[in-house]
Each structure stands twice: as C-alpha cells, then as structure tokens.
Amino acid sequence: MEEIFSNAQRADVLTQALPYIKRYNGKIIVVKYGGNAMINETLKQQVMEDIALLWLIGVKIVLVHGGGPEISDLMNKLGKKAEFVDGLRVTDKETVDIVQMVLAGKINKTLVNLLEMKGGKAMGISGMDGYLIEAKMKDERLGYVGEITNVNITPVIDLLEKGYIPVISTVGCDREGNVYNINGDTAAAHIAGALGAERLIMMTDISGILRDKDDPSTLIPEITLTEAEALKGDGIISGGMIPKVECCVEAIHKGVKNVIIMDGRVSHSILMELLTDEGAGTMLTEG
To answer: Fewer Cβ neighbours under 10 Å: the N or C end of the chain?
Structure first.
C-alpha cells in the first residue's frame, strides 16, 4: 500500500510547525480534559499522544481532569443513584468517597500510566495534595460540592521545575479534613490563573461557541470578554455553555493569556490548535 505522506511532505509539516514550537517552548499550557474524549479509548490515546509530544518539544504542560461518567458508573454498580441540582452532582459523604476513589485513584493513575507509555514523564496529584485546592461547602443542598477558596500552586510548580507533567484530579479539601468534589472547569481556571499560564485549553463535546448551536459551520473562531457578554445577552451562549464560558472569563481575569474551548472529539485537536495555522475551536481573549 502506498504511503499517504512522502518523507518530504512529513518534513514540510514539521518545518511549518517550527514557529509554533518556538512560541510555546518553555511556556505553561493547562489542558482541562473530560467528556467524550475521556470515554472513547481511541481519543484518549490520541490526547495522551498530543500531551506527550508537546512535553517532548519543551512545553510545560499541566493536565487537569474530571471523570463524571466514571463516577456515575461506579455509583450505579454500588446501587447509588446520581442526583443533580443545576448541573452539579449532589454529593453526600458516601458519594464524596466514591468521587475520591474514582478521580484521585483510578482515573488519575490511568492517565499517568498512559502518558508514561507515550514517552512522557508524569506525576499524578489530587487537589488535596499540599492543599493544592482548598475549598468550602458551596451550597448545603449539594452536600460536599466545593467552592474554591484558595489555590496553593507550589506543588505544581515544583513538578514542572523537575520536568514532570502534573496530572491533577479535581478533589479539594479544607483545613478540617473535609473532602470536596470540585467542578473540573472551575479547578482548571483557578490552576491556570495561579500559574499565569500562556493558554488554557478546555476540551468539550462541541466544536466551540456556535452562532447556531445546530450548525457546526457557524463556529466563532475568536471572541473578546466584551463580545462574550453580548453573546450571552443574545442567547447565543446558553445552557451548559454559560458556566464553561464563565470559567474561561475567570481564567483570563486571573492572568491566563487566552483560553480555547475546543472539540475533544476531534482527533489530535490539541496539536491542531497549538501547532498549525488553522487552530481549533473558539479562542477567548481579553481584547
């Protein structure tokens, strides 16, 4: 079978990526990983390849992950019904134990293992390690769902300085020893802000912000914070996209240069965004 790419074409692709490699070398990029890209095994392998490749070319990459579907799955197996209020999981004492097991245990270590297999050097930590994510109860109706009160970013900086890819699960704690389930997007925004990251990449199950939610060709490639407010007012940013965009806005206010909302269901979307002219998804900038 004839090769799709000749060696010359491969070389050409690599040289075209050179300005981007130069731009991001030594810079901090935070990736929020979840949704369909996490459930689909092929996509999961590709995301890990992207992250390992970026690390190998000198990008300081931080992976922040959720794991909602796997939490619900284990709850079902244990005969416990998942309940949601305004899109947030009601988390009693038993559920927060399950959250901690799934996020800080199974998912976190699986991702670390995958990154190592792809040639990266990864270290998994949770928001409880070194009081990375301190939190308090957000709303008594939700139980142990946390609102972030403080981010102690030193453990992440230490890992980056030692050459690791930090892989962070989004459970937090308080000084009384309570454990909290933290929204992954919110955690990623706070962590990226505390790091002063060059870019935060939010992987989702849609193409980005669309003028018409049913038509992928109406993707808006770039918006400013002011435009985001206007789009919210017009109802173009609506439903589940509202909290996601609010997290992006918060990240920029906290010092992140720009944020990308991108489709994690597209093969190698992270590499397309960072290393090609085309990009992927919607970029939010301060404007």
So the answer is: N
Query: Are the C-beta atoms of 21 and 271 separated by less than 8 Å?
Result: no
Q: In the chain, which stretches have pLDDT less than 50?
A: 1-2
CATH number of 202's domain: 3.40.1160.10
Nearest to 198 by CA among 133, 256, 113: 256
Q: What is the pLDDT of residues 82-119, one digit of tens each?
A: 888 877 778 899 999 999 999 999 999 999 999 999 99
- Predicted pLDDT of residue 4: 67
DSSP string covering 154-221: HHHHHHHHTT-EEEEE-EEE-TTS-EEE--HHHHHHHHHHHHT-SEEEEEESSSS-BSSTT-GGGB--
**Domain total of the chain:** 1
DSSP for 138-150, please give it: S-GGGBSBEEEEE
Strands 179-181 and 171-173: antiparallel
Q: For residue 110, count other CB atoms closer than 10 A to its CB.
A: 18
Nearest to 115 by CA among 172, 55, 176: 55
Asked if residue 8 belongs to a domain, the reply is no
HSE value, Cβ hemisphere, 13 Å, CA-based, for 262: 28
Can you give the pLDDT at residue 1? 40
> How far apart (Å, rounded) are the C-alpha atoms in residues 184 and 204?
12
* Residue 240, pLDDT score: 79
Give every CB contact of residue 157 below 8 A, 6+ residues apart in sequence. Answer: 195
Residue 14 belongs to some domain of the structure:
no
Name the residue among 245, 160, 152 with its Cα closest to residue 190. 152
Distances (CA, A) of 203 to 4, 43, 65: 29, 12, 10
Residue 2 domain flag: no
Q: Is residue 37 part of a domain?
A: yes
- The domain in which residue 108 lies consists of 24-285
pLDDT at 72: 86
